[in-house]
Amino acid sequence: MFEVPRWKLFKLNGNPVFIEAWFLLLIAFFAFQNVRTADQLVSGLLWAPILFVSILWHEYGHALAIDRFGYGKSTIILQGMGGVTINTNRAATPPGQSIVISLAGPAFSFSLTVIFGAIAYFVNPTGLLGEFVIHMAQANLVWTIFNLLPIFPMDGGNVMRSVIQKITRNTRRSYELTAWISLFFVALLVLASFTYFQQGLFFTILIVFILAGPNVQLLKAARSAR
Hints:
The protein is an alpha+beta fold. It folds into two domains: 1-148, no CATH class; 150-226. Helix content is 69%, strand content 10%. The protein has eight helices and four strands. It has helices at residues 21-32, 38-45, 47-68, 95-122, 127-147, 155-168, 171-196, 200-224; strands at 6-12, 15-20, 75-79, 82-86. Strands 1-2-3-4 form a four-stranded mixed beta sheet. Helix 3 packs antiparallel against helix 4, helix 4 (95-122) runs antiparallel to helix 5 and helix 7 (171-196) runs antiparallel to helix 8 (200-224). The longest helix is centred in the middle third of the chain and has 28 residues, at 95-122. It is globular, with a radius of gyration of 19 Å. The protein starts with 5 loop residues before the first strand and ends with a helix.
């Protein structure tokens, strides 16, 4: 089986940080998609630190919350469509804790929106620095909103699953409802991608591969638990 190349970078407050080759392709996509001139290339390359810092900070929010609940340090992996925080000690996290852990990532992302939005408003830097500041604020706002959509396995979907489980006290039922609601919103995203984006087919493939697949697996897990 093909294994995606992965490299360890450093430890962030005791949490090992890895980067996968797919993350480099993600950076390349954002950096070069609209490059026609040398100036555009320089501006495009700003996406490398923007994506790296933003996604790492988002995942660190999850890792910090996990650590605060006593599960220890986590492994942070920067991947093709963002990042993931893995902790093998929290297999059966109570719904209340799971909600807090899931919301910690978007909260950290939004903190970057506030910080860089304030810098843009009060300092108003110009040139490449100003462009970097504006993109950091905007990218993290979009990342916050997108992650809060009720679609598993994103943070909003995990919150939804934990809330349903807390209400129904039925793990299987929470899996089923989460998967069906998620697939409904995935369908809306597919429709929106064809309506508002020029690369509608590209975004549809990503949406189906990244978001629909896990929910089909979630439905299978729920049915096998009957």
